[in-house]
Specification:
The complex is a heterodimer. By secondary structure, chain A is α+β, with helices and mostly antiparallel strands. Chain A contains 15 helices and eight strands. A two-stranded antiparallel sheet of chain B has the order 1-2. The longest helix of chain B is centred in the N-terminal third of the chain and has 37 residues. In chain B, 63% of the residues lie in helices and 1% in strands. About 4% of the residues of chain B have low confidence. Classes of the chains: A alpha+beta, B mainly alpha.
């Protein structure tokens, strides 16, 4: 750490502007970094380069239209964004969701978690300098996107989960194709471990690097795999079950040391859990409606407020929604996990080297669309 | 007003047997493009199975795919053709020596006014040109090969269009593009050093190829101090890299340049020391002599390659291989240009031909390292089994070199990158001590058993 650096040998500090255009900032994050040699003395994350004012945009859109906006926050796991908005709005409107729609929603969200963690796996490999895992991950991610395309025609911004249910029923053959994918994917998870997870160089780069203790993680309000990597067993799916998660059997994956590798491996194990969840959803998929009866074309919920949160791919994704009785939300606030996870960088990066910084930044797994909204 | 007041005309008695479609709506077959109609049909039929192939569909047995079988056939045909050509060409060192003799005799007989060294000078120039072109064409080939290999390791296809057959001309096209590109560089650059750096990187590697024995009697020059000569010149390349980092007026470049200085200087040591046993055993610093020393077979069939000297050979080989990968600046040791950290490292601010010279140098170093590995550890042009020496030495040399080049590509696309401090630790605390131990281990071979 910084103390070990000899203070008798003072050198000039160097300020490096890492980003917004840099291969490893995963979008348009800017990090103002002060270096002493290769050791980081100070790191200031600077956000806002992708700000589109989506929370404000929702205030002038009907509730149905807001779902479209949610797709643009965390664009690599847009299903969970759809879901959390719909859960909040449905609380306001008091809608009862048909069982089939609930199962489809959960299956889609978990598939999307797989897709999102695969993206993390691939890009983290690139951050560490291994290029091949990236394309292996994308090969499987494409298959998930194919499954989404079959269901809703979109591969990135799905707008699939709607107020009162889902947009369309799963087409014939979708369930078979999904089981085929899951069967195939389970073998690939082992392959990823061989290729990257237990590679000695990879372990060396990540195992004792960027340690975030449980206290630190809680202090900074981390959530999702970043929090669980530090050993805190908090998962919204278990702690505050929503939709049908209380009926499903799955484990909360928890890391040990809070190092980059723990955060990484929590995600890898979560993919296996997601596979289990989707399998259960497919097995128990009930027949029936996919959309609640009596969803208004222009909903005008009674004045009130609602908060819903779900376990997104990046953490505890919450929405606070206030209605004033008109057709548009009065106020919408997103608790964006990426944004809150990002803040810890200013503490976690100090004392690390440039190469470690990339490892830590990658392991936090931010999506700038969600950070800036 | 008047018009409004007029009563509407009485409705015609509507016969209307078939309602005509409105004139402004075309029938759907013509209005909708074929592609969209296909997607639309997919929706209307109620099944939306993805129409692209999934890996689950194609992977269980690749031999079932016709293109895979055809590819394997073409590849084996190429290898067979190469082997056949080599068999009929025989040793090209012999006709080349004859050619040199002819040149000298021609000069003596027909050009009495030119001095006697002129013919030799022409001959040396010709050899230098040949070596230069080996390096250039190696760049063309290796970049293409690397693209194909990395692509197939990552379940992609790589270049397939340019040059018809598997994109063979892709690198040539890219070379032309780089030649024509604007040389964009920062305004604050130290312009003289910025231009000097690529040359300073490239020239040493070119010179390094002088003593490489491509086969029997097939080296540009048989230098007595060949090993020292190569290491001395190869060590100079780092100067160009540091200069490039310094002259670019970019902090990332500077960090990359300095990192690579640390890396090069460190890895030179185990790389040289790992060869000490070999040099002592062979009793020469000349690459030709070292390669020649490894010819012959134990028990009549087991090649006397240095790689197979028990313990010492293997330790030497591993240390030299690792240090060679580090010297070529490639993954897992590419910290100098670590893309995810330092953008492009020392060549961030280079573009066009200046950049491509750095690129070319990297591949030239891969070739050099493969040649050295072949010469030092795999007996140079020696055939692996006695009866295989019907094929000429340059064929075996080329084959072994290609094998090592493949290993270099393989490493790059499999491993993550080391961290700079761990990299230096690995060098000083592991490779270097073991190379010293290895020298001690080699003593019996030098003094007791001359194998």
């Amino acid at each position: 750490m910084i103390e070990t650096h000899s203070s008798s040998l003072k050198t000039d500090q160097m300020f490096i502007n890492l980003g917004p255009q840099h291969p490893s900032t995963h979008g348009v994050l800017r990090l103002g970094i002060t270096l002493d040699g290769e050791v980081i003395v100070k790191a200031e994350p600077d956000v806002g380069y992708l700000h589109r004012g989506t929370e404000k945009l929702c205030e002038v859109r009907g509730y149905h239209h807001c779902v479209v906006v949610t797709d643009r926050w965390d664009y690599v796991s847009a299903m969970t964004n759809n879901l959390v908005f719909c859960l909040a709005a449905e609380k306001l409107m008091g809608l009862e969701i048909p069982a089939r729609a609930n199962y489809l929603r959960v299956a889609m969200c978990e598939l999307n978690r797989i897709a999102s963690h695969l993206l993390f796996f691939g890009t983290y490999g690139i951050d560490i300098g291994a290029f091949t895992p990236f394309l292996h991950a994308f090969r499987e991610r494409e298959m998930v996107l194919d499954l989404f395309e079959m269901v809703c025609g979109a591969r990135m911004t799905y707008n699939y989960i709607r107020l009162g249910g889902v947009m369309a029923d799963a087409p014939p053959g979708w369930a078979d194709k999904t089981s085929e994918f899951l069967k195939y994917f389970k073998t690939k998870l082992r392959e990823y471990d061989d290729l990257l997870s237990f590679n000695p160089i990879f372990l060396d780069r990540t195992k004792k690097v960027g340690i975030i203790t449980a206290e630190q993680a809680l202090d900074w309000g981390l959530s999702g795999p970043n929090l669980r990597g530090s050993g805190v067993s908090y998962d919204v799916r278990k702690t505050f079950p929503y939709s049908i998660y209380d009926k499903l059997d799955f484990k909360v994956c928890v890391g040990e040391a809070g190092s980059c590798w723990d955060r990484y491996y929590v995600r890898m194990r979560e993919m296996a859990e997601s596979v289990k969840i989707v399998e259960q959803c497919l097995a128990a998929l009930p027949s029936g409606d996919i959309m609640a009866k009596g969803v208004a074309k222009i909903p005008t919920p009674l004045p009130g407020e609602a908060y819903a949160h779900v376990e997104g791919a990046r953490g505890d994704l919450g929405i606070y929604l206030v209605s004033d009785g008109t057709s548009c939300p009065y106020r919408l606030h997103v608790r964006a996990p990426s944004y809150i996870n990002l803040a810890i960088l200013q503490e976690a990066l100090v004392g690390l080297r440039v190469a470690d910084m990339i490892a830590v930044l990658g392991s936090i797994d931010i999506v700038l669309g969600e950070v800036d909204r | 007003m008047a018009e409004l007041a007029t009563p509407p005309p009485p409705p015609t008695p509507a016969p209307a047997p078939a309602p005509k479609p409105p004139a402004n709506v075309m029938p759907p077959e013509k209005a909708v493009p074929a592609g969209i109609r296909k997607v639309f049909a997919k929706h209307t039929e109620g099944t939306l199975l993805p129409n692209r192939l999934w890996p689950t569909d194609v992977w269980p047995n690749p031999w079932k795919s016709a293109s895979y079988r055809r590819g394997a056939l073409v590849l084996s045909a190429l290898i067979l053709a190469g082997t056949g050509a080599a068999f009929f060409l025989r040793e090209i060192g012999v006709p080349l020596a004859a050619l040199r003799e002819t040149l000298h005799r021609f000069a003596e007989a027909n050009l009495p006014q030119v001095p006697s060294w002129a013919a030799e000078a022409v001959w040396i120039l010709a050899k230098a040109l040949v070596v230069l072109h080996i390096i250039l064409f190696n760049g063309l080939f290796l970049v293409w090969w690397e693209r194909k290999i990395s692509a197939h390791m990552q379940s992609r296809l790589g270049p397939i269009f340019t040059g018809k057959w598997h994109g063979v001309l892709q690198t040539a096209a890219d070379g032309i593009k780089l030649l024509l590109k604007e040389d964009a560089a920062p305004k604050e650059k130290d312009s003289w050093l910025h231009s000097l750096a690529p040359a300073l990187v490239f020239v040493p590697v070119l010179i390094c190829f002088t003593p490489v024995p491509w086969g029997r009697d097939l080296e540009a020059a048989n230098l007595d101090a060949g090993v020292l000569y190569i290491f001395a010149w190869a060590g100079l390349s780092v100067l160009g890299i540091v200069l490039a980092g310094w002259a670019s007026a970019n902090k990332y470049s500077l960090l990359g340049g300095l990192r690579s200085a640390a890396q090069f200087v460190s890895y030179e040591l185990p790389r040289s020391f790992s060869l000490v046993p070999l040099i002592a055993i062979a009793g020469s610093l000349s690459l030709t002599k070292i390669a020649g020393y490894q010819e012959g077979y134990w028990f009549g069939f087991f090649p006397k390659w240095f790689l197979f000297y028990p313990v010492v050979g293997q330790i030497s080989f591993v240390i030299f291989l690792i240090a060679s990968v580090a010297e070529t600046n490639r993954t897992p040791f590419d910290i100098a240009e670590a893309e995810s950290e330092l953008v492009g490292g020392f060549h961030t601010e280079y573009s066009g031909m200046k950049f491509s010279i750095f690129f070319l140098t990297e591949y030239a170093y891969v070739l050099l390292a493969s040649c050295l590995l072949t010469t030092f550890f795999m007996g140079g042009g020696a055939a692996p089994l006695p009866f295989l020496s019907v094929l000429p030495s340059w064929f075996w040399f080329l084959g072994k070199t290609l094998f090592f080049m493949f290993c270099f590509l393989w490493f790059r696309w499999t491993f993550p990158r080391f961290k700079i401090d761990r990299l230096l630790d690995f060098n000083w605390k592991f490779l270097l001590p073991w190379s010293f131990v290895n020298i001690v281990l080699a003593l019996p071979y030098i003094y007791l058993w001359k194998l």
